[in-house]
Design goal:
It holds the Pfam family ASL_C2. The chain has 19 helices and 6 strands. With about 450 residues, it is mainly alpha-helical. The structure holds arginine.
C-alpha cells in the first residue's frame, strides 16, 4: 500500500518497523476529535480563499462520510496507515478522490495531533468534574443523614477525639472540591489551540488561526508555533490532577475497607457494590474500594511515564511524543470508572451508628476535654495534661472509663473537679464544644454542609 509520505522513499517500510511505529491501535480513540479538527480546518481554508468552495464542500462531505463510518464501526483501520490522522485522510481520498489530498494544506500532523488531544481532554475534564460533583452530592447526603452520629476520630490510627461522622464525610467533600478546582484551572491550558503551527515553524499559507479557534470553541491560541507542537504540559497538569484525585479516593477506599471489617464494623457496603469469595461462603469483600486503591498506582505511573518521556526532549516534535496518549486515555478511563462507582457506593453505604457510639463510649477520646476543663479553671494546661495522664492510667489499671469515676475518685487527682465534669465528658458535649470555625460541633458541620450545597447549586 502506498504511503501518504511515500514520495521520498525507494523501498517499502519494514513490516516490523511499521508495527512498532504505528499508533492507530490506540489513537483511534481520537477519531471524533480528528474529524472535528479537520472540518474546522477545511472550512477556514475555504474562508481564506486557499481552497475553492467546491473543493471545501467535497472534502467536508467526505469527512462526514468517514465520520459516520467511524460511528457505525465500519472504518477499517490499518497499521500501514500508521495513525488516526492518516487513516482518516486515506479514507477521505478513497471516497472523494484526489481533492481529498487538499485537506492537509497548511497543516502538519504535528499541530493536528496536538489539536486532537486538546479537544479530547477539553471534553473529558468537563465530564470528570461532573462526576466529582455527583460524588460530593453522595458524601453530603451521608453527612446530612449523620449529623448526630458520633464516632472516634483518629490520629496515628489511635482513638484521638470523637467527631461527627458528618464532619468526616465533609472532609472528603472539601478534598474533592480542591480536585475540582485543580481540574478547572488546568482547563485554562487545555482550552488552547495549537493548529496553524504547522510542523514547527508556522505555514506559508495565509490561514486564519483565530477563525479556527472560534469554530472549535477554543478560548485562545498558542502564541509560538514551536511551543504549540511541543507542549504536552496541558496533559501533565491533567495527569497530576487525576493522580491527586485518585490519592484522595484511595484514602477513602482504605477507610471503607477498614470500617467494613468485623473489627471496626462501622459501615456496611451495599451488596451491589461488594463481591463474594469463591471458597469462603461468609465473605463480602469491598472489592471496588480495594481496586480503586490499587488502580491509583497506574494513574501515578501514567504521570511519571509522561514526565519521563518529555524530560530532555529537544524542540520541537519528536516521535517520543506519540507515547503521550495511552497513559492519558488510561487515566481518563480509570478515573471515570472509579468515580462512576464511588458515588452510588457511598450513597448506598449503611452507617452503623450504634456500633460507632459504642466505640466512643469505650475509649478515652474525651480525655482532652478534662484537661481543657481544668485549664479553664486556671490550672496551667501542662499541669492539667499531667494530671489527666495519671487519671487515664488509674482508669486503665482499674478497668474503668472516665465517665465511670466517682466524684471522690476525681477529687483524689484535683480539688478543682466538681459535678459539671460529668456533662463535659459526654460525647455530644465533647463534639459540640469544638465550635471553632471548621470544627466538629454540630452547628459548624451544618454550616459546612450548607456552604457545600450552595457551591454545588452554583455549578
Ligand atoms: N501519531 C503521531 C503522534 O501521535 C502523529 C504525529 C506524527 N508526526 C510526525 N512528524 N511523525 O505523535
Amino acid at each position: 500500500m502506498s504511503k501518504l509520505w511515500g514520495g521520498r522513499f525507494t523501498k517499502q517500510t519494514d513490516k516490523l518497523v511499521e508495527e512498532y511505529t504505528a499508533s492507530i491501535t490506540f489513537d483511534k480513540e481520537l477519531a471524533e476529535e480528528d474529524i472535528q479538527g479537520s472540518l474546522a480546518h477545511v472550512t477556514m481554508l475555504g474562508k481564506c480563499g486557499i481552497l475553492p468552495a467546491e473543493d471545501v464542500e467535497k472534502i467536508k462531505d467526505g469527512l462526514m462520510q468517514v465520520q459516520s463510518m467511524i460511528r457505525r464501526g465500519e472504518l477499517e483501520y490499518t497499521i500501514a496507515n500508521e495513525d488516526i490522522h492518516m487513516n482518516v485522510e486515506k479514507k477521505l481520498i478513497d471516497l472523494v478522490g484526489p481533492v481529498g489530498g487538499k485537506l492537509h494544506t497548511g497543516r502538519s500532523r504535528n499541530d493536528q495531533v496536538a489539536t486532537d488531544m486538546h479537544l479530547y481532554l477539553r471534553k473529558r475534564v468537563v465530564d470528570l468534574v461532573e462526576l466529582l460533583h455527583k460524588l460530593q452530592e453522595a458524601l453530603i447526603g451521608q453527612a446530612k443523614a449523620n449529623l448526630d452520629t458520633i464516632f472516634p476520630g483518629y490520629t496515628h490510627l489511635q482513638r484521638a477525639q470523637p467527631v461527627l461522622f458528618a464532619h468526616h464525610m465533609m472532609a472528603y467533600v472539601a478534598m474533592f472540591q480542591r480536585d475540582i478546582e485543580r481540574l478547572q484551572d488546568s482547563y485554562k491550558r487545555v482550552d488552547m489551540l495549537p493548529l496553524g503551527a504547522g510542523a514547527l515553524a508556522g505555514t506559508t499559507f495565509p490561514i486564519d488561526r483565530h477563525f479556527v479557534a472560534e469554530q472549535l470553541g477554543f478560548g485562545r491560541i498558542y502564541d509560538n508555533s514551536l511551543d504549540a507542537v511541543s507542549d504536552r504540559d496541558f496533559i501533565l497538569e491533567f495527569l497530576s490532577g487525576a493522580a491527586i484525585t485518585m490519592m484522595h479516593l484511595s484514602r477513602l477506599c482504605e477507610e471503607l475497607v477498614l470500617w467494613s471489617s468485623t473489627e471496626f464494623a462501622f459501615i456496611e457496603l451495599d451488596d451491589g457494590f461488594t463481591t463474594g469469595s469463591s471458597i469462603m461462603p461468609q465473605k463480602k469483600n469491598p472489592d471496588v474500594a480495594e481496586l480503586v486503591r490499587g488502580k491509583t498506582g497506574r494513574v501515578y505511573g501514567n504521570l511519571f511515564g509522561l514526565l519521563t518521556v518529555l524530560k530532555a526532549l529537544p524542540l520541537a516534535y519528536n516521535k517520543d511524543m506519540q507515547e503521550d496518549k495511552e497513559g492519558m486515555f488510561d487515566t481518563v478511563r480509570t478515573l471515570q470508572g472509579a468515580l462512576q462507582l464511588f458515588a452510588p457506593m457511598i450513597a448506598t453505604m449503611k452507617v452503623n451508628k450504634g456500633r460507632m457510639r459504642e466505640a466512643v463510649n469505650q475509649d478515652f477520646s474525651n480525655a482532652t476535654d478534662i484537661a481543657d476543663y481544668l485549664a479553664s479553671k486556671g490550672l496551667p494546661f501542662r499541669q492539667a495534661h499531667e494530671i489527666i495522664g495519671k487519671i487515664v492510667l488509674y482508669c486503665i489499671q482499674n478497668k474503668k472509663y472516665l465517665l465511670d469515676l466517682t466524684m471522690d475518685e476525681f477529687k483524689q487527682f484535683s480539688h478543682l473537679f466538681d459535678d459539671a465534669i460529668y456533662r463535659v465528658l459526654q460525647p455530644e458535649q465533647v463534639v459540640d464544644a469544638r465550635a471553632v470555625y471548621g470544627g466538629t460541633a454540630t452547628a459548624q458541620v451544618s454550616g459546612a454542609i450548607e456552604r457545600a450545597e450552595e457551591e454545588l447549586r452554583r455549578t
